[in-house]
Amino acid sequence: MSDPFNTKIEAGMAVLDVTTGRQALAKHFESRPTTGPCPERLRVPVTITGYIDYAWGDDDGTSQGFVTTIEKIERRR
What we know:
Radius of gyration: 15 Å
Shape: globular
Largest sheet: 2 strands, antiparallel
Structural class: mainly beta
């Protein structure tokens, strides 16, 4: 296997398993349209620090999921 630090990684989205603040976050997004990009007024900027821990599922020919363990999440203003 090649060294992952020398491998370019691109991703278009990630799923965040929220524990604290999940109810408020869900309420915040109640008015979000079901299709299309999230309106700027509803976006919640964050910086996530962590590491990719293991593969999740299989490669479908386009992408593959990987579980990322979060060590720190910060709101950006």
